[in-house]
Amino acid sequence: MSVFAELKRRNVFKVALLYIVAGWLTLQVADVLFGQLGVPDWTFRFLFGMLVICFPLVLLFSWIFELTPEGIRRESDVADGASITLHTGQRINKAIVVLLTLSIVTVVVDRFIPEDDARPATVSHAEAIAAGTDEETELPEQIIEKSIAVLPFVNMSGDPDNEYFSDGLTEELLNALTRLGELKVAGRTSSFAFKGKEADLRDIASQLDVANLLEGSVRKDGNRVRITAQLVKASDGFHLWSDTYDRELDDIFEIQEEIAEMVAGALRATLLDLEEDTLVPQHTDDAEAYEAYLRGTFMLRRAPDDEDTRRRAEAEFLHALNLDQGFTLARWGLFKVLDARFRNGAVDFQQGVEELEELAGVLMDENPNLAESLLAKGRAASARYRFSDALDAYQAAVDTHPGNLDALNWMGHMFMVSGQPERAVERYIEVLGKDPIAAPVLAALTRAYFVIGQCDEARRIQQRAVAAMPGAARVNAWLAYCLLMNGGDRAEAIDLLSSEPVDHLRLTGLAVAHHLDGDSGRARAALGELEESIGEGASYQFGQIHAQWGEPATAIEWLQKAYDSRDPGIHGLLSDPLLKPLKLDPEFLRLQSQWKTRSGL
User: N or C: which end of the chain has fewer CB within 10 A?
Assistant: First the structure.
């Protein structure tokens, strides 16, 4: 008998086929289970390696041994008439058919039913939506079809230190989608407000005013990444598209481009008229530099006011620049570190301004059309109190990058400090159109409504902020101030101020409210607490209080100190309603004139 015939008689070929099918099915099950259990990626490679190593051993075993009614015996010990290889082969055939059927089912499920590991916190959301069990979270009819929020991709690496990468990927995809002309993209602040929270997808979409959600997961192991992404129609949980990418880290920009293009295709959105022919510009060819940039950005976002964190972020950005001197975004990260130090008073004013201006100049020289370069130019100008120049820079950023919400937000602030609160309202509303639960912008808009005396609108925004984020800072104080300055309910104002977490706003408001109530004892107590807790750092607030108490000379003395020390509160000098009692005072008018001259207004 030939070797081939003997291999066939001993069922070696059938055992090989059975092993291959069973091994493939095992890998598919392991891929799903390992992801859900957070097992390190090397275990999957180990399993694959063991299956490969065992393959020839199984073939050798099937050649040497035979399954008999008495159990497993060496083939050479089985009598010629006692062999049951034919019966064994039939049993193997049945096993192969069963496993092939399971394999086909697995392929169909994987191809047409999206993976649930993309967002563990919302595994059951699609089912809940499809079941229609939550009528309260139906999407408003006015939400446009071509709108999307990119939810934070989940870090599935089993290592919390890799969270910077999943967050960074999310933000890069968000930025890429803003380049699609017809697509409304929810801002980062609002999208990231749901990070780590279990919430119904339809409710998330309703709060963000979008019709679609992009969610996913990231597994990073050394230089390998596995990214799963899925696009969900929020109204019914229908998955418009999903895919998984297993690549080297060097291909990260290509992956981002592919995901953005697939989303664009699914939503039938078109690209803006841009100079580049890509949604994801590749700012560096160095994967290590890119990772360092993402780490620095992640650190700075989490704790911009902590100097130790700023130093570590600064080290990451410098490392990225050492690897790639032309990596403009890393230089922008370095600028943000310096800007955070400057705004927190951690550096000398003159030194801080000069550092910001120098770095902004380098950014403009490297890439004058990059949004981040224009933002740096505007921030450096505002640090020097050149508010008109800052406005021009932010306007240029908006003109070239219409989806840049930072530029619109900072334009709003420039309009506030230049005494144009109505124009500030327009900018803030524009930002909130895409970033509807951005707490700092909601607070800024509440303040703007207070300045122009629209307390009903201030209340509406305050309620919106508190509903989205209980305990939101500043909104209670600005609404209370509006009530106090416009004849509103002082008891309500005092109640609002009592729950305000920002000390100087709370104590200033209470000092004014109790004075208006005729309770000089409590008013003085609030002033004393402000003096004790903040001291001369509250020079501007002391000016507000004494202006409301009818003590103009003392008020102007404190405002002059605020001006001389560059107290941030002085930015409200031109339009602050609390200073209205001083509006005809010659010394106050002189101080306002000084401020306009210094600010180039």
Answer: N
